[in-house]
Amino acid sequence: MADFVKPPDLAKNLTNCGPEYHRQRLIHILQMAYSGELAAALAYAGHWRAAWKQTERQDIHRIEMDEWHHRAGLLKMLHDLGAKPVLWRDLMMRSLGSVIFLACFVSGWYMPMYFAGRLEQANIQEYEDAAYHASNLGLEQYAAIFKVYAQKEVEHEQYFFNLIAKHWLTPIMKSIFHYGPNRP
Predict the structure, then answer these.
(1) What is the rounded distance in angstroms from the CA atom of residue 126 to the CA atom of residue 51?
(2) Is 150 left (phi over 0), alpha (psi -120 to 50) or beta?
(3) CA distance 7 to 14
(4) CA 170: distance to chain centroid?
(5) CATH of segment(s) 17-177
(6) Radius of gyration in angstroms for the set of CA atoms belonging to the chain, rounded to a whole number
(7) 134 with 26: CB under 8 angstroms?
(8) How much is the pLDDT for 1?
(9) Which of 37, 111, 129, 181 is disulfide-compatible with 161, CB 3.0–4.6 A?
């Protein structure tokens, strides 16, 4: 079983946010992001295969490749920090990604587009948090990589939002999930 680094309780560490705190937080984020990228890549593999328009297929396939690239980079960082992925989390995310892969073929066009944008938004914050903790550890090369990853996730989110911005379901989904693009 992989070593899981449970993050310390923030409230208990407000006065003691030293290097060990930032190291533990960074490793935790890396472990979660590493598994999350697996689910995303698998979901996008189904998403682009289920898309009808050739341009969408190509764009979403490129996004899938970005997710695999991020995952490889995250694994290297984990190894550099002497940590490992969390096996149970990877298995759980592989299952989730596989279910989403299949759901893309039966859920229609809109739902995969909407939730892909939502997923990307969460990834942006995750990478910004990782950059913060890396900077506090003096790992500026990692912080720079996380900023690139976050920017790539912004581009992914914007891509999906541009596709759904004028769709009739968007205002309904936004009212339910409190998330979505504004109409132009």
Answers:
(1) 28
(2) alpha
(3) 13
(4) 22
(5) 1.20.1260.10
(6) 17
(7) yes
(8) 42
(9) 181
Q: Give the amino acid at 33.
A: A
Residue identified by tokens 């939502």 is: 118
- Tokens coding 56: 């969408």
CA–CA distance, 144 with 72 (Å, rounded to integer):
16
pLDDT at 16: 59
Q: List, for the chain, all residue ranges whose pLDDT scores fall below the cut of 50.
A: 1-6, 10-15, 183-184
The pLDDT, as a whole number, for residue 26 is 97
Q: 84: Cβ–Cβ under 8 A, 6 or more apart, which residues?
A: 2, 3, 78
pTM for the complete prediction?
0.85
Q: What amino acid is encoded at 174 in this protein?
A: K
Sequence letter at residue 24: Q
φ, ψ of residue 17 in degrees (nearest 5): -100, 60
The predicted pLDDT at position 172 comes to: 92
How far is the C-alpha of 98 from the C-alpha of 101, rounded, in Å? 5
